[in-house]
Every structure is written in C-alpha cells, then in structure tokens.
C-alpha cells in the first residue's frame, strides 16, 4: 500500500524505537540517587538495566511471532500501551523490588513493540533508495538512543526527579498510539504457531546465568546459589537448543546460524554492546562518586560521545557504499577499543578532558561508524521468509549481550582489592578493571569481524 506521508511514517516508527533504546540507559546517570531512594545494593543496582534488557531480548522473538499472528500495527499499539503502563509502575515504585518488576514489564512491552516497529519499517519502505535511508536512520538509533538517554536522564533527574525520566514515556507513547492509526498501514496476518517454550527456555536460561554472575559479585563463588543458578541456566539454554531443533516453527530457525558471516556479525555485536554497557555503568558512577558531578553534569559529560556518534552515523551509509564496509567495521571497532582502553586509566582526581572527554570522543566515532554496518551484516543474504527471524536475532544479541557481559565485568571488578581505600579511589579502581575488560571485548569483536564477517561480500536486501 502506497504511503501518503512517508516522512511521518518513518518519524512514528523511529521515535518509538528511540524511546525503547533511550530507556536502556536513561536511569544510568541517576543510579546513585535511585540506590539511595530505593535501597539497592551496589551489585543489584545493575538489575535496573539487566531486568529490562533480559526480558526485552529473551521475549523479543516471541513478540515477533505474535506480530505475525495478529498484525504488526495492532501489536505495535498494544506494545506501546503495555510499555507506558509498565513505566508508570517504575514511577510509583516504593522499593527496589517493585522497580525491578516495572523494568521487567517494560521489557515485555518492548519485546512486542520492537519487532513490530522493525517489521513495519520493512513493509512501509520495501524499495530502494527509500529503504536504505530508512534502515540507516533506524540503525543509527541503536547507537544514538542509549547515549541520548544518559544526557536526558541526568537532565531530568537534576531538574525534577529521576522518576520523571520514566514518566515522559506516557505522553510520548500516547501521541504515537494515535499517530500509528493515521500513518502506519496494517500488515497481513499469518497462520504461525507461537513457540512459547522456546521463549520461556531462552529467557529463564539467560536470566539465571546473569543472576548467578551478579550474585557472585556480591556473595562470592563459594555461595551455593551462585552455582545452582549458573548450572540451571546453562542446562536450560541447552534445553532451548533442543526445543528449537525439534519444533516445526521455532523462534530461532537454526539454519540462520549456518552463515558464518551473520553469526560472526551477531557475536561481534553482542561483544560490542556488552562493552558499551560496562562503559555507561561505570563511567557514570565514576563521574558522580569520584568527580562529584550531579546527574545533570554527568549527563552532559557524555556529550562528546553522543555528538560524535550522532555526527558520523548519517555519513556511514553513503561512505560505505563508496569505500566498502572494512573501514567502518574494522576501523570503528579499533577506534572504540582504543578509546575504551584509554578510558580505563582513570584516577580519582584526574582531568576530565584528558581522562574522560577525549576517550569518549574516540568511542563515539567508533560506535557511529560500526553499529550500522554490524546491523547490515547480521541480516545480509537472508531469505525473505527468514527476514523477520533474522532481524529479531540481531536485536536479541543486542539486548542479551548487554546484561551478560556487564554482569561478567561486575564480577571482575568486585575482585579488585580495595580495602582501606576512600570511595573515590574504590570506584576508580573498579571502573578501570571493568572498562579495561570492555576494551578487551571490543578487541575480541574485532577479531571475530576480521575472521568471519569481512572475508565475505555483504548482500543487501
């Protein structure tokens, strides 16, 4: 069906996805305030992000199937509504447990809304060059949204209260709900079976593994529950693979993993976003605890990365068509790794410009250059029948890579000896260990790209 207002259609779809990605990080700059208000422990504080990303990633493919079954626009609207109501739960949360519940519910709404928005983008812009431009904008949001969330979260927390950072989802979502009926076309319903067991196994398995890693940071590896959840999670993930092999309509068709290029791109993406999650989590706390910044100042301190990432992202599609993917995939990851390793040399009383701003600039340039190309590589050469599942698989790696690798680096940081040190020294030492680990993740991602992704020519849809 011909679009009457293609620019407004793209705006509605992009804004909804931006809202989801902003909520990945909008609480990061307010973490010390939330910890004080709701009684989070230092280790459990990461669940403010992990509860959202794990549910989002674990149920995303199920949300995609539901959209096939009932229609994408209808599920887009229901996803928006659920996401708004879950945001209200976060706003009124009186303690840590209720806030985590709200974040889980937000992740459920996002798992319905996210794949519906991507599918609507594909059906609304099926032809080039409009499709390429639309995908470039959509892909750039993955990198821009979380960094924008850092700035907005700090601004809102300082001027009003951290709860308002989640309340703004309600008016934005309401506008998008009404706009969707005017500017989005409904997709055809398909008769597909919903792989509920696959969704349960993947979400429970990943959640158990991540919980075990986070608990180990607080209680140590001698804790029996750490090993219980770790073993249970790994066995559940094995069960997930067995379910996917036997079911007629799996959430993740295992044939998608036969492509070394796509599998390599998805693995690199998971490593990359895990590195970014570590960077956001620890840099925010370092700026507030060691440098004494308030949430607003902390958010503004991330501007070098935000502006650099935003500035370069829109030039990548045009330049990569001319120079190829290598400068942006390999060069971007090298730049991010260099910036991250530089950032891992923080000192309690060091210079913001030399120790934080300049490394952030490198990270932003590298992120803006590599994110879109990693997305394209993750869906390159996919058959039309598998396009939805492949797109969901890309997003799933993004959402699950963050909590998994963040929890691993939190565990590593907890092993740093800090006895007798002041608070500003403790956060500097722990941040350096975790962020250095994030830099190593980027280097591993680079190796994966060089070995599995770049040797093959990309095939665009």
Notes on the protein architecture:
It is built from 18 helices and no strands. The mean pLDDT is 82. The chain is an all-alpha fold and 461 residues long.
- The number of E-state strands comes to 0
Helix segment tally: 18
Taking the sheet with the most strands, its summary is: none
Query: SSE string, helix = H, strand = E?
Result: HHHHHHHHHHHHHHHHHH
Distance between the termini: 19 Å
**3D shape:** globular
Mean pLDDT: 82
Helix content estimate: over 70%
SS strand fraction = under 5%
Radius of gyration: 21 Å
What ranges have pLDDT less than 50 throughout 5 or more consecutive residues? none
List keywords for this structure.
single chain, globular
Topology, element by element:
Layout: H1 6-25, H2 31-38, H3 47-70, H4 72-91, H5 96-124, H6 130-159, H7 164-167, H8 169-183, H9 196-219, H10 224-246, H11 260-289, H12 295-301, H13 303-313, H14 316-323, H15 326-343, H16 352-378, H17 387-414, H18 423-453
Helix pairs in contact: 1-5, 1-6, 1-8, 3-4, 3-5, 3-9, 3-17, 4-5, 4-8, 5-6, 6-12, 6-13, 6-16, 9-10, 9-17, 11-16, 11-17, 11-18, 13-16, 15-16, 15-18, 17-18
